[in-house]
Amino acid sequence: MKKIRLEPGPFVLPMPTVLIGATVNNVPNFMPVAFIGIVNIKPVIVACGLSPTHHTSSGISSNGTFSINLPGADLVEATDWCGLHSGTRTDKSKVFETFAGELENAPMIKACRLTAECRLVKTVEFPVDTVYFGEVVSVHVDEAALKDGSPDWSRIAPLLFTFPDKGYWRLGDHVAEAWSIGKKYKPL
Ligand SMILES: Cc1cc2nc3c(=O)[nH]c(=O)nc-3n(C[C@H](O)[C@H](O)[C@H](O)COP(=O)(O)O)c2cc1C
User: Fold this and answer.
1) Sign of the alpha-carbon dihedral angle for 48, 145, 142, 167
2) Which atom belonging to ligand 1 lies closest to the Cα atom of 59?
3) Which domains does the chain have, with CATH numbers?
4) The pLDDT value given to residue 59
């Protein structure tokens, strides 16, 4: 098959769609974020590529804390709305009912089946975005979304994101179990 060269783009999929929460001027603020991933397992460190000009980013920098909230398809309209408006001009604090965990100023969304609170540990600046590294301090999951004490992803049903078509997606089919299915493979 002939390969066509494209310009560099954010083409590592799937990208999640999370809502990052922070407190700005004593008010909870949320924004959807797709540039986020796990980069270390112990302690659990997440890296998020955020524009430092965002209202949420200023709250993260001043408090040193933020939250990660996984919306499902049921919250897609409210999630997208938070990406269409900035907390600099629009009060987003009434969009979601929130709860607090162990950290101050890391408001979490009750309607998200899985949320986490993070402590900012490091930032690295790039020309457009700054990478905010956060240590996950605790994770909160709806009891009904657990299976044998672990997150049941079919019940949490996190929203995913694709680019450049700007699509919101659900998780697809489960294919196989990792560190297991490969045992059947016979190298040539
Ligand atoms: C699906 C989606 C994904 C987004 N991902 C990011 C991202 O990864 N990084 C970023 O800085 N902004 C991202 N944005 C843009 C911000 O969410 C948007 O500019 C928001 O209004 C900022 O809100 P704030 O100024 O109240 O913080 C995304 C927006 C959408 C709709």
Assistant:
1) positive
2) 27
3) 15-184 (2.30.110.10)
4) 98
